[in-house]
Design brief:
Elements (H helix, E strand, L loop, with lengths): L1 E5 L4 H10 L4 E6 L9 E4 L5 H11 L3 E4 L6 H6 L1 H22 L2 E7 L21 H16 L4 E5 L13 H10 L4 E4 L3 E2 L4 H12 L6 E5 L5 E2 H12 L6 E4 L18 H7 L6 H7 L9
Parallel strand pairs: 1-2, 1-4, 2-3, 4-5, 5-6, 6-9, 7-11
Antiparallel strand pairs: 8-10
Helix pairs in contact: 1-7, 2-4, 4-5, 6-8
Length: 295
Amino acid sequence: MRILITGAGGLLGGRLSTLLSAEHETKALVRRSPAPAGIATVSADLVDEIAVETVLGSVRPDAVIHCAALADAEVCERDPERAGRENEIATQTLARACRRAGARLISISTDLVLSGGCSFSTEDFRPDPVSEYGRSKLRGETAARRECPEAVIFRVALLCGLGYGPRLSASESIAQRLQAGDTLSLFEDEWRTPIDPESVAQAVHAALLRPKLTGLFHIGGAERLTRLELGGKVAATLGLNGSLIRKSRRSAHQGAPRPKDVSLDTRRAREELGWTPRPLGIAFREGRGATSAGP
């Protein structure tokens, strides 16, 4: 299958480009950061409708995996206009172009579109984001559905394991700080269901093989963990000094608002995709910064 991956210079998009290229003819769409070595690359500004339609006409993808986003919550909070442009308008433009080109769209969203008031939220739970990042991504979901009604939307949880590019995954960031002997504070009152890019790639691959599949799917890991618990698991798995980790609470955070509990119920993905996320311990060991850690 011929696929185009947007945001292929980023943490998730870069890894998906590498992983999916083993099974599919993959091209990467980038704007600023380079794609992984060996992946054919095209470039376009996703808010430019003519440029996007030109790229799709040239690549002629069977499917587009839309990973490109402004994912820095602090930047989104300071610059909501930019957040809207990169997370909503770009998605709207791409979804419209996919519909016109007859390409399937799998659009990557985030667990942070949820309010944080419920554990293991299902796809039917009403989203009510507390941050500008979450609001802009939710508007992107709406735009994708409006412009491309047959789109698949994956709400992806906090990423752990091996990432790509300058941004580190959550587990990589913890591992590197602990290896450097730094103390770090992690929230004891923020719950997520962390997932690794390999598991996301497996879900994407399963969706690609089901041409009639549409709608919203929650893509998260099997474990509901606080940030503090996640740090402890990374330290224990990699043989690092967990005593360097300090407890913190969201109330002490001065930046973008953070929801309390955005853990995801993934039963729909498991049942309709025949998919199961990998164990987190495997992902931790694969991450950058883990190679020189303990056994």
